[in-house]
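**User:**
Make up any protein.

**Assistant:**
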Amino acid sequence: MKKRFAFLTVFVVFMLACNFLVPTPTPAPEEPVPVTEVPAGGGISTKLEELGGTPCEENPDFTCVTIQVPLNHFDSANTETIEVVFAVSPATGERKGMFVQAFPGGPGGEGISSGGLGWFSEGILEHYDIVYFDQRGIGLSNPLACPNAYAADFLEYLNESDQAGKEGYDTPEEQKKAIEGSRKYAENCVAEIGIEPAKLAFFGTDQVAEDIESFRQAIGDDKFMLYGVSYGTAVAQTYAAAHPDHLSGLVLDGTIDLTLTGVEGSLAQEKAFDKVLVATLEACNADELCKADMGGDAVAIYDKLAKQASENPISYEFPLPNGEKAKRTFTFNQWEYTTAYQMYSLSGRMLFLRALAAANRGDFIPMARLAYQQLTVDPLTFEYVGDDTFSDTMFLSVLCTDDAYFSGTQDEKVAKTIEAGQASNGTVPRLDGSVYTGLDCAFWPSSPAEEKPAEPLVAEGVPTFVLNATLDPATPFEEGKAVFQNLADGYHFYVEGGRHSIYGWGYDCPDKYITDFMVDGTLPSEREMVCEDWGTDVTRAYEPLSKQNAGDYENVLETFVAIDTEISLQAEYFYSSFTEDTPIACPFGGSFTFGPGDLGEAYTFEDCEYVKGFALTGSGSYDYDASILTYDVQVSGDKEGSLVYIDDAANGAFSVKGEYGGETIDLSR
């Protein structure tokens, strides 16, 4: 398994930038049309009923419609069809059209199970149907999967350690092993999918774009708004190039430059990840609390620990909720994988800095907790479990179907990939090696013989909003800028600093500008602007590592506040979807279980020590509506007691009452 960086928004699975095959574009209309007309026959609800729509089992806020589409949109002689599912939430008021979401990214992310309404303003929900879809080969749309082949290949990648020389495949033995590994994965995956290999060519981005066009025709709208995020910007640009006359507007959020070759894209992305990592580490150096926790220069500490993992995998014992400890090793591949995926968001970067500071003190458990979440492996067994809403299979299949990586025969592609990997080795100090994905694509049956970079998107007559951030690691800022500069009717909104994707996070810029256009037809007065309301933050405000001993705290309330903070920032809890009970080991013994509750979340503590000498046994909850967290626990250790702790987040208040160490406790702040 070669290192891959993903074009993702919420979910994270490795890949790198790639270019996508784009159908020949049709002529643009003479004048832009900002909204669509209501289709004849009673609007979208009537149309959905006619199409056999039913409530989406995975997302009950939406009505799911299954349509039959050609397996190959570009060959009328091929009459084979497949099913593709679209999910629609009708406009609540006067309908202006559809707002179709190429979401959440990947490729490989499911749109329907991950979709929601919370990203959109009241005006958009009133006037637009919100539409998500599972692209062909994913989720509800004729899924293709090889979970066994992927798990075996991925775990081999995670557990291998390069100790033969420099990072990368720099010896004949390493190169041979990598080549055979890619060959084996492709063969095993295709066999497990059970599909005729030639048909994989019909699951690329160009076909996905035509599926959207089929849905538009089925609904009967002349024009619609299209949003693409991350890899979804490839889908959106491909559709815009082919059917600009059917778009009233286009939003590209975290934008891929489709004119780049796979190699150019991967090298650009390596630089972007390195840029964000260094900015994050330097932000720690500039923060008094982070610098104190780190105990030195954060950049140097990162390099020291990365070098340590590279030279000899780091051994550690991971605590399990049953009280046992599992002996594990932290390889360099695990280290870089975890690092990369923590760079997508400001919160992820802060969590990474806390884990790095702990690792510098010799405690690798916080970093391991992050790793298990990003690797999607079971902490109890280190078995690969994956993400139910993400297709690892289609991630690579779409990537390799869209992009040849190198032109030539299979052997020529392999040789060029090895050569490019060695040439790039060391040119980016950290988080490099993505070029080697070309090995997998060399053996994938649907990989085209030749590189075919797309022509620049012009989209004349289609108001297009390009959204961007200077510290987006997955879709580099420069790529979005380049796309904007080629557009005939483009608008560029970007954040100084920021994260991967910037729409729908509650900031007026860019959200209000897009709402104003969609609802009122009002275009921005400027073609390019900085979204200053985001600020220029590199990371979320740093939360210092908690003191380890109960005696180090001023009082019982401060102890509880520290425990509250540590739980909220613990990887398993922070990244949880709270759909089932999850037991985890507490740092100094015992266990903590969290999961869904009647009003939000429910907790169980069993001799749980987040602070030495302060073990909790009891229950707790978090009421989502009231924003009140409660722990009702017995305390043992240095002293004994019975205490109720309340975190009233809505009012910024904390309190604890009860008995502790023979004294009555009633503290608040």
User: Anything to note?
Assistant: The two ends are 51 Å apart (CA to CA). The first strand starts at residue 7 and ends at 8. Residues 262-285 form the longest helix (24 residues).
